[in-house]
Amino acid sequence: MIKAAVMGAGSWGIALATVLKANGHEVIVWCRRKEQAKELTETCELKDKLPGVILDKSIKYTSDMKEAMSGKDMIIVAVPSKGVAQVGRMMNEYCDADQLVVDVAKGIEEDSLLTMSGVLKRELPDCRIGVLSGPSHAEEVVRKMPTSLVAGARRQKDAEYIQNAFMNDYIRVYTSPDVLGIGLGGALKNVIALAAGMADGLGYGDNTKAALITRGIKEISALGLAMGAYKETIEGLSGMGDLIVTCASMHSRNRRAGILIGQGKTTEEAIAEVKMVVEGIYSAKAACSLAKRYDVELPIIDAVNKVLFDGEKAKDGVYNLMQRDKKSEHTKLMWEE
Asked: Which one of 117, 184, 261, 286 is separated from 108 by 20 to 30 angstroms, measured CA to CA?
């Protein structure tokens, strides 16, 4: 049995807590607010985000970080990406030396351009940092729908520890040493999903969605490879897999926000209506900064930024993408003479 702490009581943190508990582990969830910890303890429901799901009564909840982290074998950081740095700094006081900390947040920090696992490594330099990612909606995981994830860590034994903790008859977990690639895939797919949502909001169809997914993974791959990630990762669960599910599902808050923007709402109005953190909005600017640093062209991600922050209409963004200069799809293939 593993003693695990989940830092963050959002839908994904709660979903992962239910998996750990179903696997026979001891689980405590850290909540930012005492009121939330009290409500979860008393009702065993996350009513606003996972309505109708009754949680295991033996999952514990606390707003005391020391209580949550003390004596734990593994700590899972499941707060929104914009809060990872702050929570990491708070955790530093209570982390044991060589503690295994698992990032499940997806994003890129705008100032440092670090993925969330990189942010945690900066804030918790003495800890072993892993990552768990892949195509997974909390709404489906808590209902035990078959899901595949990838556990990443620099050391194989850490990745396998995460794998063993979460794997069961409805969660399949693979392992990978490509922590950077897993983090980039999870962050950048949210930006592409905003574009896919905008296309939906504009009333475009399957042709448009397929083009955005296909060319979107090309952009993620181009930047990832330039930064040192591996092609296999981008083509795998945390790249192509997560991109497909996020662009296609109404569970996706990024797609939902994109739909609203495509329908004419402002970025701020879309965030307010979704009522959850739209991670792609926070990663979009950082992705453009990385593209400049590594001299990589990301036309879809650039177009999303112009709509989000420069006031360009979504329809104009799509038009400008379609009017780009003619190109070959694969520049390294050879023509016959």
From this structure: 261
For 83, the 3-state DSSP assignment is helix
pLDDT digits (tens, 9 = 90+) for 230-245: 999 999 999 999 999 9
Res. 26 pLDDT band, cuts 50 70 90:
very high
- For residues 40 and 11, what is the distance between their CA atoms, to the nearest angstrom? 12
Q: HSE of 263 in the Cβ direction (CA atoms, 13 Å)?
A: 13
Q: What's the whole-model pTM score?
A: 0.96
To the query of whether residue 265 is one of the catalytic residues in this protein, the response is: no
Catalytic residue among 60, 106, 121, 189: 189
3-class DSSP state for residue 58? coil
Q: Which residues does 27 contact at the CB level (< 8 Å), separation at least 6?
A: 4, 5, 6, 17, 20, 21, 59, 60
Average confidence (pLDDT) over 12-41? 98
Which tens digit of pLDDT belongs to each residue from 89-124?
A: 999 999 998 999 999 999 999 999 999 999 999 999
Q: What is the mean pLDDT of the chain?
A: 97
Query: What's the rounded Cα separation, in Å, for the pair 239 and 187?
Result: 9
- Are the C-beta atoms of 55 and 40 separated by less than 8 Å? yes
Q: Which two tokens stand for residue 120?
A: 């945690």
Alpha helices by DSSP H, listed for 155-205, are 156-166, 179-201
Beta strands 26-30; 128-133: pairing state? unpaired
